[in-house]
Amino acid sequence: MSSENTETRSRILESTVRMLEEHGGKGVRMGDIAKESGISRQAVYLHFTSRTDLLVAATRYLDEVLDVDKRLAPSRAATSGIERLSLYIDCWGNYIPEIYGVGKALMMARDTDEAAAAAWDDRMAAMRDGCRAAIDALHADKMLAPGWTRPKATDALWAMLLVPHWEALTIECGWSTKQYVRWMTTLAEQTFVRRTGS
Amino acid sequence: MSSENTETRSRILESTVRMLEEHGGKGVRMGDIAKESGISRQAVYLHFTSRTDLLVAATRYLDEVLDVDKRLAPSRAATSGIERLSLYIDCWGNYIPEIYGVGKALMMARDTDEAAAAAWDDRMAAMRDGCRAAIDALHADKMLAPGWTRPKATDALWAMLLVPHWEALTIECGWSTKQYVRWMTTLAEQTFVRRTGS
DNA sequence: GAATTACTTGACACCGTGTCAATTGACACA
DNA sequence: TGTGTCAATTGACACGGTGTCAAGTAATTC
Asked: Phi/psi of residue B11, each to 5°?
């Protein structure tokens, strides 16, 4: 059921993403999604076994639409650690606002639903891999700032890139995505890149 | 009702804090608190109008117990901006683990309860005041790093000190409070304190 | 014309919060 | 000895949202 790819299934996913985006991930119920899809509430359960299942599918769907792999390509192709780091942050910083609605819904579902927690943790683990890769690249260049072990640097980079930090700066403080990306890049570079006395 | 200070009321508050602490703020229901207080569920509602009301009262109660004002005194008495900044971070970093359970519960309640959101925002605004004061002190010393306006620096400091960042580093990554405080202090200093070419 | 598929309708169980009304037991004061 | 009051108890219930179940419908296919 959740593996098929019917027309209706896609409509549900589209509505879900649209509504979550619109409402910042908050207060969107199964019934609302059904209505938006021009379908009965129960029909949604014909395609997704639970709200969490739907949310998880929605993130996957969105990742496909946004072509995450393509977006990450530049960072992966970087020739230096510094470049890799800044391209990764750029990529991530522009990605967050696009997945924020769905992500927020999933983050909130975490509180009560074990499966949602696992799904979100999984995504964050993937993000962490990106951080680790950037730190490793820096290390390979012998450009990792002194005082850091690679795991600790990965922890620190990962933590500063998490969604709530973005949320605070953009949504609460009103920073633009551009400002956010600039600041996180600066912060990461001043933190993790060895200072060469030029 | 919520202003009185009966024996039972205190027992409820104690149980609430204890249970939230124990369970990391998750999955503690009104009935659980009642049971823990040796009281019926309804009796809790005799002292607190709602779960949110109870949570808010619990944070206040905890602040009293922890004597927050006293803890903040050293930072307030600092004679330089740098000192103020680092003492504030030290204070905050040691405070978070003690209020984490209650804070987490309040943060989670935010999602569905307007009043909880307001209460938490209020606390975060207070924390922000501390940040602003530290940045202002730095500025007064002409030690605020170039490139920062005071509001932007306040935003950035505030955001990096938010609970989810602490949560990621300590709970998810396993850093100790000491490590967290050291790192946040370093991070804040390297970010906001002007570098004097010594 | 019978079976299959996708969907609808409506009822219902479960959970946790919050409300209500009737009752109990203790203490106070007269 | 009663009367009033106060804190708390008991049990029932409403509400909102998720998830389940069973019966029915309408279109497609063989």
From this structure: -60, -45
